[in-house]
Amino acid sequence: MSVGTPFHPRTAPLNSGMVWREWAGYYAAGVYADSHDIEYNAIREAAALIDVSPLFKYEVRGPDATRLVDRVITRDATRIEVGGVVYTPWCDEDGFVIDDGTVARLDETAYRWTAADPTLRWLRMNARGLDVSIEDVSESVGALALQGPFARDVLEAATSESFADLRYFRRRAAKVGKIPIDVTRTGYTGDLGYELWVAAEQAVKLWDALVAAGRAFGLMACGILALDVARIEAGLVMIEVDYTSVRHAIIPAQKYTPFEIGLGRLVSLDKAPFNGARALRTEAIRGPKRQLVGLEVDWDAFESMHLAVGLSPIVAATASRQHVPVYAAGSGAQVGRATSSCWSPILKRTIALGSVASGYAEPGTRLKIEATVEAARHRVDAKVVPLPFLDLPRKRA
User: How do 366-373 and 219-221 pair as beta strands?
Assistant: First the structure.
């Protein structure tokens, strides 16, 4: 049974259409407005407020906190400075990805860890022999993503302080009125943005203060449907959609390494021993068998496919998480699958994240994606393009 997040007293009245999704046991709004395009436009043109409280959140503290973090994640935790944040996957002993998330260093001996799936047991298993405590603060800490080109303006209006010096993937404490918050320069939209972490009992007051500060900047509450489009444009993977956690894998093909989902750059093979290091060193030498790619559908081919059955081209109103086969343009053999796809309002094209055999991952490679029109399966022309599809300079500004 789903429950409301700490912000539910404010998000529930806004969700007049009762469009709810389930996210880690919480109610998550699919869309508040009449159309998710309105909320997408807020992300890309104004400012959006997104409740991301369902993320699992842990605080790791103690003299050996850094050793634990370094033992679990693929990145070099000894290089995370106080005030720094890293995005990272973590793997099992065979080098297959368990989950991905962020790790923020709060002080010399404390970290805040976020995850999509429950991770407490894994952390405690790896903490044996270490002087460290791990606390699950998932319910006691609320989280809001403040995203969009005017996100900084809203935050500065709410806090009465400048955030121009808070760089990409950095964090610092602040106050909104008398409400203590922690601010990280992070997000899941590929746009200028922040994530705000607050004690659950202060969540509603924080929401109200941000809404009041954001009126002058077009701030709008945003749901999962618009967020899905933005994260695909940004080339950001989603667990159980673009890859399967090894904990949920039923067959070998559902097990993914970081190199296979576009996260190989986040693997530090020369650091202290960590889970999966030996297997990942071997894969780094031989190369991954498959890779995450960007796919762009050829519009003329897509249009012709519809005209052949007397229809105007029809694009899906929302992002799809349905896997569809991807084929080699020449032989017609299946070489992978598209995992997430959408019509990009800003790029004016249909795009998809895909997992394809490494021999077909080079940008410019011609492929075909399965598409269904009038209950008949077709193959439409597509090509491999670099990720991200959309790389906004203001994201890092």
Answer: unpaired
Conformation bin of residue 233: beta by default, left when phi > 0, alpha when psi is -120 to 50: alpha
Amino acid at 152: R
Report how far residue 45's alpha carbon sits from residue 59's, in angstroms, rounded to the nearest whole number: 34
Q: Which of 100, 73, 83, 99 is nearest to 274 (CA)?
A: 73
pLDDT surpasses 80 at 1: no
Average pLDDT taken over every residue of the chain:
97
State the residue range of the domain holding 338: 289-393
Judgement on whether residues 214 and 324 belong to the same structural domain of the protein: no
Over residues 50-78, the pLDDT tens digits come to 999 999 999 999 999 999 999 999 999 99
The answer to whether the pTM exceeds 0.90 is yes
pLDDT tens digits, one per residue of 87-145: 999 999 999 999 999 999 999 999 999 999 999 999 999 999 999 999 999 999 999 99
Per-residue pLDDT at 285 exceeds 90: yes
Nearest-angstrom CA–CA distance, 231 and 73: 23
Which residues, 6 or more positions from 164, have their beta carbon under 8 angstroms from its beta carbon? 152
Check whether residue 213 and residue 326 sit in a common domain: no
Say if residue 295 is in the same domain as residue 376.
Answer: yes
What span, in angstroms and rounded, lies between the C-alpha atoms of 394 and 397? Answer: 5
Which DSSP string do the residues of 114-163 spell out, in sequence order? EESS--HHHHHHHTTTS--EEEE-TTTEEEEEEESTTHHHHHHHHHTS--
Structure tokens at 63: 């003299």
Closest CA to 97 of 234, 340, 267: 267
Q: Domain ends where: 176, 200, 222?
A: 222
Q: Which residue, among 317, 305, 293, has the nearest Cα to 387 in the 3D structure?
A: 293
Distance CA 117, CA 55 (A): 8
Length of the chain: 397
